[in-house]
Amino acid sequence: MRSVIIMIFGLLFIGCGDDACQHDNDVVAQPVDIEVGRLEERLFSSKSVEEIESFLDANQSVADIFLDAQQYPSNTILAEKLMTLVQNPGMDTLYQEASAEFASINEMVTELELAFGKLQAIYPETKTPRLETIVTGLYKDIYITDTLIVVGLDFFIGDEATYKPQQIPYYILSRYDKEHLSSIIVKYLSGQLVLPGKKPTLLSEMIDFGKTYYLAQRLLPCTPDSILLGYTPQDMELINDNEAVIWATLLENQILYETSHITKRKFLGERPNIYEINQKCPGRVGAWVGWQIVNSYMEKNDVDINSLLMETDNEKIFMQSGYKPQSR
């Protein structure tokens, strides 16, 4: 499985409806124990360059991934740079605030263990990753593979942070908090299991997202809709109340079979609003519609999750979904 360093642009998902945990029994989780390393504690307790160099040597994979250690002639030079950063008052503020916000990560670990337990029930070959946390001065936010997850906690302190990630739009920055972390990880990993549709149309890519959301919903069955999708409660109410209008707009504009990347980005990419539908319609709503189509398909057909994720004929999924939202 390929890895990624994510700035959380384009991580999409719709959750489990008004009845929290309504899909909790859809997949019975296997027992999973995720090993956790709180690297920020050791890094910031270091009193010398030698101690930081020892820290880097002991955590070389994380040093390479999160600190670009391979760009330095030796860990000694990187350790000298980190020693200066650790002694910087601004860095200390980030560390203290991240430590306070994430004094306990037990809830997040429990959510991830449940998700991986369910994923291993569906795909027995799924590995159990190690989780590492660190503070790097807002250098990198998150790294995800099926064997290692590294979280830069200073990115996820939330609204009260003294220092916030720069050059990130406000509507994306709202997802950089503790509440969203589990869903960010699970949505990414779910997406890696979906075979892309064989046609590069807007509709096909909407359904690709829908498959991802369908799986992620069952791996995190108790996570609220607004957290999973990254929408405000007001956004959720708007799209639910106007599902028929959103669908009618897509049909009237005759864009479902568009292959233009520009068109697809308008309805699937990060935007504060999709003005082509309505000035208040939140971005990425095409992905939400794709999830509705997949959900309808799974309700009306005797198909398991594995078959859904392996299906590349998204036109067939659409036709067999019978998706036709009604005005409320």
Describe the structure.
The chain is built from 16 helices and five strands. Helix 6 (106-122) packs parallel to helix 8 (181-191), helix 8 crosses helix 9 (202-219) and helix 14 crosses helix 16. The protein has a five-stranded mixed beta sheet with strand order 1-4-5-3-2, sandwiched between helices. The chain starts with a strand and ends in a 7-residue tail after the last helix. It is globular and about 65 Å long. Mean pLDDT is 91; it is low at 1-19. The chain is mostly helical.
Helix and strand topology:
Blueprint: E1 4-6, E2 36-38, H1 39-44, H2 49-58, H3 60-67, H4 75-86, H5 89-101, H6 106-122, E3 130-134, E4 142-144, E5 148-152, H7 170-173, H8 181-191, H9 202-219, H10 225-229, H11 233-241, H12 243-252, H13 261-268, H14 285-300, H15 305-310, H16 314-321
Helix pairs in contact: 2-4, 6-8, 8-9, 9-14, 9-16, 14-16
In short:
With 328 residues, the protein is mainly α. Helix content is 49%, strand content 6%. Strands 1-4-5-3-2 form a five-stranded mixed beta sheet, with helices on both faces.
Compute the number of helices.
16
Structural class: mainly alpha
Distance between the termini: 42 Å
Shape: globular
Helix content bin: 40-55%
Structure summary, number of beta strands: 5
The chain-level mean pLDDT equals 91
Point out poorly predicted stretches: 1-19
Q: Order of helices and strands, N to C? A: EEHHHHHHEEEHHHHHHHHHH
Strand order of the largest sheet: 1-4-5-3-2
Task: Report the biggest beta sheet as strand number plus sense, adding barrel if it closes.
Answer: 5 strands, mixed
